[in-house]
């Protein structure tokens, strides 16, 4: 009997991404799986796209009544409730690091929770992550808002952001905004410094900057070698935009501070996009703000700036949502080889390790 994979419809508000796409669902069917997809009013993929790929549709929310041996696949948290979860679930649950409410949520999983954040390859690296499109979207928003600042010198705030139907629409929009900004400020192209440029998020940021047409001299690509001298860095206050994409692993000297901003009398910096966004970490290398921003209100101003124009920070922790189609396609494609091993999950290392982790976390509850 084929292993049944049941894609549940996302219920988290504004979540348009999907763990399976018509392309990856079809690939799983071709690999011998029985895939069913719930009708979803909020997915970026129309029901018809799955239907056209030959995938049977099932009612929204029907996973609850599915036979107990069906594997339930989703992306984000389930809505709060208290009924027992009897299936094996594959999703991000945000409960393994003792996040708020983790006890009650984790206790509901009676079978197995394979948490997508902890599915690792043999080198301990995530098998699937959204990083590339987080960096891509973060750089797009940064350029967009920098351009807005240039064309709205009276300080009018940037309006709420909505997801884009696809990458081409986003790029065309950002290109138009940069062109308008250049016209308003005498043809000046923004200089962008990206730290963590060799990583997943960082490479996404670099690619976006290239795709919207910034010249190589306008994109500073920094990683470990460049920050080894220790911050704060004048190269940041001398750039128009700073994008932080590092994976923070411990205490490091800050990259930029209020003092370093105030000390640079010829400061160019107007905008920081903190893709890594660890405002609650004592080691935050961008200690100039302390909240997460949202698509509704994408920036927060750095306080304590003594002279010159304000410096704004974007600290959105769900940036890939800006491009739900491409980010889902990328994530699901990375996950596909592991999903193809699901029928052998008792022995396949990636799933066996994830199950072991779940059992350890459950044991810690007792
Ligand atoms: N805001 C969002 O929506 C969003 C989405 C996905 C990931 N993230 C976060 O982005 C961060 C990066 O994720 P990733 O997948 O790109 O990680 P990654 O491991 O692929 O890349 C991190 C890069 O940072 C570099 N780096 C680490 N410390 C550095 C330092 N001190 N100086 C210079 N470079 C340094 C590494 O060499 C590496 O190239 C993570 O914290 C992740 O949680 C945010």
Please characterize this protein's 3D structure.
- There is one protein chain.
- The protein has 366 residues and is of the alpha/beta class.
- It has 2 domains: 157 residues, 3-Layer(aba) Sandwich (Rossmann fold), CATH 3.40.50; 191 residues, NAD(P)-binding Rossmann-like Domain (Rossmann fold, 3-Layer(aba) Sandwich), CATH 3.40.50.720.
- 33% of the residues lie in helices and 12% in strands.
- It contains 11 helices and 12 strands.
- The strands form 2 sheets. The chain has a 6-stranded parallel β-sheet. The protein has a 6-stranded mixed β-sheet with strand order 8-7-9-10-12-11.
- Helix 1 packs parallel to helix 10, helix 4 packs parallel to helix 5 and helix 4 crosses helix 6.
- The model has no long low-confidence stretch (mean pLDDT 96).
- The protein binds nicotinamide-adenine-dinucleotide.
- Nicotinamide-adenine-dinucleotide binds next to helix 4, helix 6 and helix 7.
- GO terms for molecular function: mRNA binding; saccharopine dehydrogenase (NAD+, L-lysine-forming) activity.
- Monomer.
- It catalyses: L-saccharopine + NAD(+) + H2O = L-lysine + 2-oxoglutarate + NADH + H(+).
């Amino acid at each position: 009997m084929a292993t049944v994979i049941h894609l549940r419809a996302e219920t988290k508000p504004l979540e348009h991404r999907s763990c399976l796409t018509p392309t990856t669902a079809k690939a799983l069917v071709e690999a011998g799986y029985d895939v069913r997809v719930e009708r979803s009013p909020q997915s970026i993929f129309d029901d018809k796209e799955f239907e056209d790929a030959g995938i049977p549709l099932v009612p929204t929310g029907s996973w609850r009544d599915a036979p107990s041996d069906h594997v339930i696949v989703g992306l984000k948290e389930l809505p709060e409730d208290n009924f027992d979860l009897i299936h094996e679930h594959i999703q991000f649950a945000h409960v393994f690091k003792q996040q708020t409410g983790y006890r009650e949520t984790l206790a509901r999983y009676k079978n197995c929770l394979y948490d997508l954040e902890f599915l690792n390859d043999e080198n301990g690296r995530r098998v699937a992550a959204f990083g590339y499109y987080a960096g891509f979207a973060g750089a797009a928003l940064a350029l967009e808002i920098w351009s807005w600042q240039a064309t709205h010198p009276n300080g009018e705030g940037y309006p709420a952001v909505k997801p884009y139907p696809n990458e081409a629409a986003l790029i065309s929009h950002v290109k138009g905004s940069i062109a308008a900004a250049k016209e308003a400020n005498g043809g000046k192209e923004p200089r962008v410094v990206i730290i963590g440029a060799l990583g997943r998020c960082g490479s996404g940021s670099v690619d976006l900057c290239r795709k919207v047409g910034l010249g190589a001299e306008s994109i500073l690509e920094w990683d470990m070698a460049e920050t080894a001298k220790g911050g704060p860095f004048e190269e940041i206050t001398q750039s128009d935009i700073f994008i932080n994409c590092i994976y923070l692993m411990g205490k490091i000297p800050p990259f930029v501070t209020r003092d370093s901003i105030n000390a640079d009398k010829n400061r160019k910096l107007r905008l920081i996009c903190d893709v890594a966004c660890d405002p609650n970490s004592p080691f935050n290398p961008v200690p100039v703000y302390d909240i997460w921003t949202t698509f509704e209100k994408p920036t927060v101003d750095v306080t304590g700036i003594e002279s010159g124009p304000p410096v704004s920070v974007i600290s959105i922790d769900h940036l890939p949502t800006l491009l739900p189609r491409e980010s889902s396609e990328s994530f699901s494609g990375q996950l596909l080889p592991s999903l193809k091993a699901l029928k052998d999950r008792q022995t396949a290392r990636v799933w066996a390790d994830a199950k072991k982790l779940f059992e350890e976390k459950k044991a810690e509850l007792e």
